[in-house]
Automatic annotation (TrEMBL):
GO terms for biological process: DNA-templated DNA replication. This is DNA polymerase III subunit delta. GO terms for cellular component: DNA polymerase III complex. It comes from the Bacteria. Residues 31-156 form the DNA polymerase III delta N-terminal domain. SUPFAM superfamilies: P-loop containing nucleoside triphosphate hydrolases (SSF52540), post-AAA+ oligomerization domain-like (SSF48019).
Length: 349
């Protein structure tokens, strides 16, 4: 099928639209893949590779890591004619010079060659710039030019509202079933990060012989993060379950977690619970709380569920006790493990 070069500049598309256009051989000369969702970035890369037959890739595909590779060499490659093929495919990764990030250890790139190419791209080359950032630095001339000349592929982190629907769609595509309580645990242990969810699903797909993923599978195969463990610790503290709370605290120490860090996350969790409790009393909804507190909606959802079970007095007492622990830990007044034990005994009484 004969390819059609499409006009670039200011067009923003999602992965599905990119797939559709490349499938119809409507190919732009320059793309900017912008965003931080690893799963979507990998999908974009796979789609771009379909532009070349497997036997052509050795000769007509090149990928440059601009944190170490020369931009000039990459642009020399982009301006070369295809070797026994219809087109060349050139990737530019980690273009720090387009962002507001500091280029630590990266070579000083001469952007003149890229500027010249952006103004006069070759029809026989597909140049793809992968910028793993939320946005380019709009103060830089070269960044403005890239955004003007390139077709932008949006691979931003999926918002919380889109994660569940994207997960459901992925499971349907793979023909797997995941119960609601299993789904909630998977999202929680993946920090509501879709790329992490997809990575964890690979393990679960292998374990689910009958294509049904149970909560037990998620609990056993998806390791909890420190924040997950601290969330469980908060629950045990609030239920005044001294033995269980101390056992989990000891497990965290055995896993080389620092007591000051554990205490700091506990303080953060109780502060959030107090804020949610107070604001929810004033009629604030989950959406309002997310905007006001600048906290991930999934954390707000869990906090709302928790504060319904406990009084503001309990939450405040725990928060102040942990604040006192923080001061004593940092001033070295007592053994850090003993401080948590004393806190639990005092709170439970």
């Amino acid at each position: 099928m004969k390819s059609t070069t499409i006009k670039t500049g200011r067009e923003i598309m999602k992965i599905n639209e990119l797939k559709k256009q490349l499938g119809q051989q409507k190919i732009a000369p320059i793309y900017l893949v912008l965003g931080e969702e690893d799963y979507l970035i990998q999908q974009a890369q796979a789609l771009f590779l379909t532009l070349l037959a497997p036997e052509e890739r050795d000769m007509n595909f090149a990928s440059y890591d601009l944190s170490s590779d020369s931009l000039g060499a990459a642009m020399d490659d982009a301006t070369s004619v295809p070797f026994f093929g219809e087109r060349r495919l050139v990737w530019l990764k980690d273009p720090v010079f387009l962002t507001a990030q500091e280029a630590k250890g990266s070579p000083n790139q001469d952007v003149a060659s890229l500027t010249a190419y952006l103004n006069h791209p070759l029809d026989s080359t597909v140049l793809v710039i992968f910028a793993k950032v939320p946005k380019l630095d709009g103060r830089k001339k070269i960044s403005k030019l890239v955004q003007k000349q390139a077709t932008v592929v949006d691979v931003q982190k999926l918002p919380p509202a889109a994660i569940e629907s994207a997960l459901t769609q992925l499971l349907q595509t793979k023909d797997y079933q995941l119960a609601p309580d299993s789904k909630e645990l998977l999202i929680q242990r993946s920090d509501a990060d879709f790329s992490a969810i997809v990575a964890n699903l690979e393990k679960l797909f292998i374990a689910a012989d009958d294509k049904v993923i149970t909560r037990q599978m998620v609990a056993e195969l998806v390791s909890p993060t420190l924040e997950d463990n601290v969330f469980d610790l908060v629950d045990r503290v609030l239920h005044r379950d001294v033995k269980s709370a101390l056992a989990l605290y000891q497990d965290l120490l055995l896993n080389k977690e620092e007591p000051i860090r554990i205490n700091s996350i506990l303080i953060s969790q109780f502060r959030l619970l107090l804020q949610v409790k107070i604001l929810a009393k004033k009629g604030m909804t989950q959406g309002n709380l997310t905007q006001i507190l600048k906290v991930h909606p999934y954390r707000i959802k869990l906090a709302l569920k928790t504060v319904k079970q406990f009084s503001q007095v309990d939450l405040r007492q725990a928060y102040l006790g942990l604040q006192d622990n923080d001061y004593q830990m940092k001033s070295g007044q007592q053994d850090k493990m003993l401080l948590f034990e004393l806190f639990m005994l005092k709170f439970a009484s």
